[in-house]
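step 3/5: co-fold with adenosine-5'-diphosphate
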Amino acid sequence: MNPNYEAVIGLEVHAQLLTGTKIFCGCSTEFGNPPNTNVCPVCLGHPGVLPVLNKKVVDFSIMMGLATNCKINHNSIFARKNYFYPDLPKGYQISQFEKPVCEHGFVELETGEGIKKVRIKRIHMEEDAGKSIHDTGESTLVDLNRTGVPLIEIVSEPDISTPAEAAAYLKKIHQLVTYLEICDGNMEEGSLRCDANISVRPKNQREFGTRTEVKNMNSFRNVERAIAYEIERQIDILEDGGTIEQETLLWNADAGKAVSMRGKEEAHDYRYFPEPDLVPVLISQNWIDEIKTALPELPGKRKQRFIDEYGLPGYDANVLTSEKAIADYFEKVVRKTNHYKTASNWVMGDVAAYINENKIDISNFPVSPGNLAKLINLIHENVISGKIAKEIFPEMIKTNKDPAIIVEEKNLVQITDSGELEEIVKKVLAANPSQVEQFKAGKEKVFGFFVGQVMRETKGKANPKLVNEILRKELSK
Ligand code: ADP
Ligand code: MG
Ligand code: ZN
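step 4/5: write tokens
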């Protein structure tokens, strides 16, 4: 990036809430049902019907507000956001404009340069629109199952300065909604959606530049790519003496670029006004306190507990608690083994590598926490070496078999019989007289060669500590 400029970024994140029913009617929010089956006169926008607010939506909004250090407004109102679109049957979306449910919060991000604070401007409640399905030949079909599914929109202040910070911010929001269990956080399926407002300005300029909005980035990586792209595009225009047009762009991940969707002239004027069919939402301090008391353990607390309870280094605790599902998996493992640090190494190492490589969720990881714990115990009981464990692990992934059974079937039990190892060590030394000579002349490095040879003879089954001891003994003779 051109060092004479800096970027200013604000994110608007929509999170689909995990309520059983919609925000203003009793229809199910279940995903994947046949089109237009989760509908009723209310969410279809028939004339004469009245919305009734789902209390759970307010509960979830308060939870997110508390988790992001917001002020919870005791008096909050809904508004109509008017626009015409086929998947919006009422011709308006019920959202919040003035007096959103939460305001003035912040989150803290851990970056390479320390803690970065990003202020939250507001969190508001709204209903989702339906889905237009364009890829069915000539006509466009409309599925209204999603119409009226509850969302919260989390709007940041323009405090974000780089694409990486934007991704880190989004990960933080993802982490919080999943810890709170108010949203499944699935970006590919659109349960968590992010729009980015981006502007650039010459360094040392106080005023913000003209901003554009980029939509349609459905992964952390794409958020980072799209923002980097848009920053470069704006700087190029300014460097060429041009001006930035205020517009909305659509990110195309395949093409690696953002294309204009609508300019300022086509920008919507939503004509917001207070929703006359809903009374204000009055939130008592008591209600807020109750929710605060019942709040689940959040990432910061859990990290500290991992340090205190399992004696893990801060680094491990941070990595393990970065995603709730990973922290949950780890805690299931350590229910069955007391070797916490080894468990941490396996989860952060081999397990994480496998799920990242195969792009799967840890909830779909084939090795059960119980079997991983058994593997760890086998190592610590000296039944197998760490090296053999690494060989067994892929087999466990394939079959999720009990590791003890694999060890037996493949005859991998560690050789801890010192008599047997002594024989092998002697054989190795006898077969390599020149190396023995070198070692005795002071070439310490050759020691590793002997260890390697013994391991080869035993197909990796020798207990490494014993091998070391016996080798030292025999070589000093
Ligand atoms: P609007 O009401 O027009 O949507 P908001 O003030 O609510 O505008 O801001 C929407 C988003 O745009 C927020 O996330 C905010 O941080 C961000 N934003 C505002 N001004 C700028 C700017 N100049 N550059 C980048 N982002 C901005
Ligand atoms: Mg906005
Ligand atoms: Zn309905």
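step 5/5: annotate
The mean pLDDT is 93.
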